[in-house]
Amino acid sequence: MSARDSSRPRWSLLRAAAGLTRGPADLLDFVIPLWAGLALGLDATAIGLLVALELVVSCAARPVAGWVADRADRRVVAASGAVVYAVGVAGYAFATDDLAAVAFAAAVVSGVGGSLLWVALRAMVSEQYRSDATAFAGLVSAEETGAWIAFVVGLSMLGAIGYTGLFLLAALSCAVGAAFLALMPAERAREERSRGAARGAVRRLAPLLAAVVGSTAAEAGMGIVLLIHMQKHFGLGVIEAAWVFLPGAIALAVLPKPLHVVVVRIGRRRALLVAAGLSSAFAGGLALAPTPVVIGILWVLSAVAWAIVMPVEQAVVAESAGPSRFGTAMGAYEAAALAGGAVGTALAGIAYETGSWQVACAVLAVVALLGGLAAPWALRTMSAADRPAPLVAEAGATP
Predict the structure, then answer these.
(1) Among residues 308, 304, 288, which one has the least CA distance to residue 248?
(2) CATH superfamily placement of domain 1-184
(3) Domain 198-382 belongs to what topology?
(4) Which end of the chain has the lower number of beta carbons within 10 A, N or C?
(5) Burial of 68 by CB count in 10 Å (0-12 exposed, 13-18 middle, 19+ buried)?
(6) Is pLDDT above 70 for 175?
(7) Neighbours of 385 (CB within 10 A)
(8) Per-residue pLDDT tens for 45-71?
(9) Residue 324 DSSP one-character state
(10) How many Cβ atoms sit within 10 Å of the Cβ of residue 164?
C-alpha cells in the first residue's frame, strides 16, 4: 500500500471534521449580527463591537495557535480547539437581552477555540500536501460543502427551533467534528523547532501575506455591502438573502479540485491573474445588478475566483514553511486574512454610507484587482513554484 493510500482514512476524517466545523462557523458569521439586533436588542454600535471582539481575539490568537501547533500533537490541538469553539457557540444560546454580556464572553471563547482549530487543521493538511497536491483544494471543497449544507439545514430549521436551537445544533456539529479529529491516528514525532526559524518562515511569507490582506479585504467588503444592499434596497430577510449566496457556496464546494487541474496546466501566476479579473468583474457587475437573481449569478464569479485563490495561497504557505513550521506559517496566514477582512468591512461600510452602492462597488472592484495582481507578484518575489511541486513530474513541466 502506498503512503497516499495509507493516509486516506486519516484524510477522510480530517475533511469530515473541516466540514462539520466550518459550516456552523460560516452560518453563525451570517446569523449573529442579525440575531444580536433582533433577539438581544443591541444597537448598531454594540453589534459592531460584538462582531469586532471575536475578530480581534481571533486575529491575536492565530500566531499563538501556530506556535502551539508546532510544539504539540496537531491532532490534539485541533480537537481541543473544536471543543472550545463548540463551547463558545453554545454560549450564544444562553445570552438574553438582560444577559448580553454572555454573548461577548461567547465571542471571546469562540475566537480562541477557532484559532486553535483552524490553524492546527491547516497545518495537518500541509502535512498531507507533501504527498497529495490536491490537499488544499480538497480542504476548501470540504469546508464549503459544510458551509452550504449548514446554511440549508440551519435556515430551514430556524423557524422551528429558533436561534437558541440553532446555536445548540451548531455546537453539536462542532463537537462531532472534534470527535472525528480525536479519532485520527496520532502523528509521528517531528524534529525540534527553532524560534529563529519560525521568524524566518514568517518573513519569507511577507509578500504573500500582504497580498492576502488585499484579497480578503475585497471579499469581506463585498460580502458586507451586498448584505446591506439586499436588506435596504430589495427588502430581503435573513433566509431570502442566504438563498442569494447559495449558488456561489455550492460552486465553491464543487470547483476547487477541477480548477486545480487548470492551475497545473496554466500555472499559478496566470490562474491568480484570472481570479483577480473575475473578482473585479464581480464587484463591478454588482453596481448594475437589477435583481437578487442576477446578484446570485454574479456571486458565482466570486466563487470561481476563490476556488482558485485559496488552495494556491495555502499551498504556497505550506511549501515556503517546511514541516516543522506549518503551524507558525498558517497562523500568520490566517491572521493576515482576518486583518484583511477587518479592513475590507470598514472600508466598504464607509464607502457605502458616504457614497452610494455604485461607489462602494467601484472601490471594491479596484481593491479586488489590486489585491489579485499582488498575488502573482508575491509568488515571483518569493521564488515560489509556478505549479504544485508534487505534480510537476506528473504534468511533465518545470516550475
Answers:
(1) 304
(2) MFS general substrate transporter like domains (1.20.1250.20)
(3) Growth Hormone; Chain: A; (1.20.1250)
(4) N
(5) buried
(6) yes
(7) 17
(8) 787 788 888 888 999 999 999 999 999
(9) G
(10) 16
Number of C-beta neighbours around residue 7 at 10 A: 18
Q: Tally Cβ neighbours within 10 Å of residue 30.
A: 21
Half-sphere exposure for 111 (CA within 13 Å, toward CB): 23
Q: What is the DSSP string of 272-312?
A: HHHHHHHHHHHHHHHTT--SHHHHHHHHHHHHHHHHHHHHH
The answer to whether 68 touches 77, Cβ cutoff 8 Å, is yes
pLDDT in tens, 298-349: 999 899 999 999 999 999 999 988 788 899 999 999 999 999 888 887 777 7
Q: How many residues does the chain have?
A: 399
| R_g of the chain, CA atoms, integer Å | 20
Residue ranges matching CATH 1.20.1250.20 in the chain = 1-184, 198-382
What amino acid occupies position 270? R
Rounded to an integer, what distance in angstroms lies between the CA atom of residue 37 and that of residue 77?
34
Please give the single-letter amino acid code of residue 260: H
Cβ atoms of 257 and 141 closer than 8 Å: yes
Between 32 and 388, residue with greater pLDDT: 32
Task: Say if residues 319 and 384 touch (Cβ distance below 8 Å).
Answer: yes
